[in-house]
Design a protein that fits this description.
With 232 residues, the chain is an alpha+beta fold. The chain has a single domain, classed as Nucleoside Triphosphate Pyrophosphohydrolase, CATH 3.90.79. 27% of the residues lie in helices and 13% in strands. The chain contains seven helices and eight strands. Strands 2, 3, 4 and 6 form a four-stranded antiparallel sheet that branches. A two-stranded antiparallel ribbon has the order 1-5. β7 and β8 form a beta hairpin.
Amino acid sequence: MPDTGAVPVEPRPAASVIIVRDAAAGAAEPIEVYMIRRQRSMKFLGGFYAFPGGKVDPGDAAPAVLAGCCGLDAGDAAPAVLAGCCGLDAADAARCFPGHDALPPLAFWVAAVRELLEESGVLLACDGAGRIVAAPEPTVGLPAGQTPRLYTEETSEGFWIHPAAGYRRFLAKEMAMAEPAEYGLAYIAQFRSVDELWAACDDNREKFTGIVDRIEFQFWKDFDWRAGRWTR
């Protein structure tokens, strides 16, 4: 292959949050997720649909910021500690919490909470002092009294959608999205309630949280991509 001189794109550390809720009684599908649409004018993924999130900023790793995480201090940001809090064994720790550009794993959780607030107005705080929710917990409920809304000029839409419906619209090329959103919709569509999704997290069956360099395709071997459903 001839050398074109093109420089490969280097992935940047990023984090996102999937907000889920049970659908109303009688709805066609049991779960809804909150999605946003990026402004068409944006250079990166303009017009794409996604979950709230964004790149990890250097400030997300500041000692004072890490110390504001409830239940942890900056010294607890080691992969083994975070993996244990998420119910993972030692073998999974390196896979789910690798180092990235000298960023501690805890910085990814800080970025996720910060981006969620900036893009939807939802604050995952656990006390009046504003300390953020216990950082290593990968799944949390939507705080009482809070409703996601658009709070940034970077997004043009914010809405609730059934994950399976969103995935079908992706297959029909009606909703452009990158792999994390595509896979997230496909994954959540297999559950029949938020409680069932939470149970999957609690018993370590789910594999969609943590920090990863790439999406593991082995996990998706039982997913029928054309039909948009799980075969197991």
